[in-house]
Amino acid sequence: MPSQLASVLTLFVIYMLLICLISTASAVFLGLSVYNDARYRCNGNAVMWGLLSGFFGIAAIIYLCIRSSEKHLTCLRCRQTYPSDSPCCPVCGLPSPNVSRIGTPQQMEQWKKRRKLFLILFIVSIALTVIASAAVFVWYFNSILRMVESSQYYF
User: Fold this and answer.
1) What span, in angstroms and rounded, lies between the C-alpha atoms of 104 and 110?
2) Sign of dihedral through CA atoms 26, 30, 31, 36?
3) Using alpha carbons only, what angle is made at residue 145 by residues 144 and 147, rounded to the nearest 5 degrees?
4) DSSP assignment string, 45-73
């Protein structure tokens, strides 16, 4: 019985470590998804949002609440609105404050694809974590119950 208990506990610890690894990977996927979304939206704090979202999941919710769904800027000189991915105001020519943050069209498309890919990977890894956790706990408690039933000692 003690050797059987030791083997069950060893397997339980190994399974829990694997679940922790999957959970850590999901945090990385969430951070990468938020980072790529922020880059796509020309956010100057993309690295900060990506890191915060990776370490603290609540930061991703905060980012979703404050991110701008509109991609327009207002010119400081002529007060006309124009797309935020434009290098300058089309009316007066004042350079956009986002000029250093805007990527090429190929980069913008890459960031758009990556944010979706990492979001899908995040969702899949969270689902795997939940399913694996449930399976491990059911297996563990069944193993313990079988050992208790087969022993001569009752608690």
Assistant:
1) 10
2) positive
3) 65
4) THHHHHHHHHH-THHHHHHHHHS-S--EE
Every domain of the chain and the residues it spans: 2-69+102-150
Taking 60 as the threshold, does the pLDDT of residue 58 lie above it? yes
Establish how many alpha carbons lie within 13 A of residue 125's alpha carbon, considering only the half-sphere containing its beta carbon.
19
Between CA 118 and CA 29 the distance in angstroms is: 5
Mean per-residue pLDDT over the chain, rounded: 85
Q: Residue written as tokens 């805007």?
A: 102
CA distances from 153 to 4, 5, 138, 142, 149 (A): 15, 14, 22, 17, 9
Q: Take residue 117 and report the two structure tokens written for it.
A: 């890919």
CA end-to-end distance (rounded Å), the chain: 15
- With tokens 């009752």, the residue in question is 154
Model pLDDT for residues 92-122, shown as the tens digit of each residue? 888 777 655 666 778 878 988 999 999 999 9
Task: Fill in the DSSP letter of residue 85.
Answer: T
